[in-house]
Design a protein that fits this description.
The chain is α+β, with helices and mostly antiparallel strands. The chain is built from 6 helices and 19 strands. The chain has 2 domains: 132 residues, no CATH class; 213 residues, no CATH class. The longest helix is centred in the N-terminal third of the chain and has 46 residues.
Length: 386
């Protein structure tokens, strides 16, 4: 039996590490530029989205889903209704037929998966030793894992194809009261619930001979409790008719995205019963979370970029590993400070570009505050008059 763990030890000389770190400088500058572009774009995206939501919140009207009112044509409307359909979704291979908005098949195969872990240790003299551990574990996966690309494929071969694949079927006509939901709105409905098999008797006769019922799933293999490479399990999930709340532009008896004056698109849908104000509040919170997530991501990328630029300094000092660690900590701290500074400056420039009036007001306010503090400090420090 082939082993499932492999270790490989390599040594890189000091000069080799210096060469690699110098090559990394170019990539560092690319990361710095890329993160700057990301931060600038994100500030514009956040401002545009906030303007769109603000405009939409002022323009939206709540309507009844029971009838289509031509007077609301082209307006931004809010409604609450049950999303439903008259269609029956099927999966003939597994004998499934159910009235639903969506039907999803999840097919998984038991396969080998390769994982690689590296540990690097610095040596006196500046060289480094890297221990690479390649491991092979068995796992359930929806997509085929190509074992021909493994470092050690011997004894870790996966089948070349899956007998079943995952798929999703969506009803063509889904309505909310008197309205037909657009495809983009339907895509936002994702309230899936498991649809377990209750009996193997519902399967086509040909399938009953090769599949077993296990925990509501169809299992293709000798023993569900002792899976082997190549075994397959198939499960289903379904979206039944459900109450939805939406905000969109009414177009005849359907909907389209609302285009704001700033050019932003607005189309909201949540599963459940929500007022227009609640939908806009949730959208605003999502915008805030995304904005800060991208800001943090931009900062981390810029930090990594500056760290790569300064990395040759720590590698040069690695002749004595302790000195290299000290220099590495110092350059990492400098990289973080520079990344923080340039991130804030980039965001500030973006605000000047996207919101010049507000930026000028804030700048004047900050200038007045700083001037006031300096004046107050001089006043307190001045000797009393006699």
């Amino acid at each position: 039996m082939a082993p499932d763990r492999f270790r490989e030890v390599t040594t890189t000389s000091w000069f080799g590490r210096i060469g690699e770190s110098i090559k990394g400088i170019l990539f560092g500058f690319v990361l710095i530029a890329g993160s700057g572009i990301l931060i600038f774009w994100n500030e514009g995206r956040a401002v545009n989205r906030a303007k769109t939501l603000s405009e939409g919140a002022k323009a939206v009207i709540t309507i009844s889903a029971e009838r289509v009112d031509p007077a609301n044509e082209g307006k931004l409307v809010h409604l609450v209704s049950q999303a439903t359909t008259t269609e029956t979704l099927t999966d003939a291979e597994f004998g499934i037929a159910t009235p639903a908005l969506k039907l999803r098949r999840k097919a998984e195969m038991y396969q080998w998966k390769e994982q690689e872990k590296k540990e690097t240790k610095k040596n006196t003299g500046g060289s480094s030793t890297t221990t690479t551990t390649t491991s092979y574990d068995k796992t359930w996966a929806e997509s085929l894992i190509d074992s021909s690309r493994f470092k050690h494929p011997e004894g870790h071969k996966n089948p070349s194809a899956m007998i079943y694949s995952s798929r999703e079927v969506t009803a063509q006509n889904i309505t909310a009261g008197a309205f037909t939901l657009s495809r983009s709105l339907v895509n936002r409905i994702d309230s899936y619930a498991d649809l377990p098999f209750t009996s193997a008797g519902q399967w086509p006769e040909a399938m009953r001979a090769k599949a077993k019922l296990n925990e509501g799933k169809a299992y293709f293999g000798a023993d569900p409790h002792a899976p082997q490479i190549g075994d397959v399990r198939v499960s289903f999930a379904v979206v039944k008719p459900v109450t939805v709340s939406l905000v969109a532009r009414q177009v005849k008896n359907s909907f389209e995205s609302f285009i704001s004056k700033s050019g932003g698109e607005l189309e909201l849908l949540e599963v459940g019963e929500f007022s227009a104000a609640e939908l806009f509040r949730q959208a605003g919170q999502m915008n805030l979370l995304l904005t800060w997530g991208l800001r943090l991501g931009g900062l981390l990328l810029m930090w990594l970029g500056f760290a790569l630029v300064f990395r040759p300094l720590s590698v040069l000092a690695d002749v004595v590993p302790l000195f290299g660690n000290i220099v590495g900590f110092g350059t990492g701290l400098v990289a973080l400070l520079l990344a923080s500074l340039f991130s804030v400056l980039t965001a500030a420039v973006a605000w000047l570009f996207y919101r010049p009036v507000l930026s000028m007001i804030l700048a004047v306010g900050v200038g007045a505050l700083v001037g006031g503090i300096i004046w107050l400090k001089k006043r307190v420090a001045a000797p009393p008059r006699r």
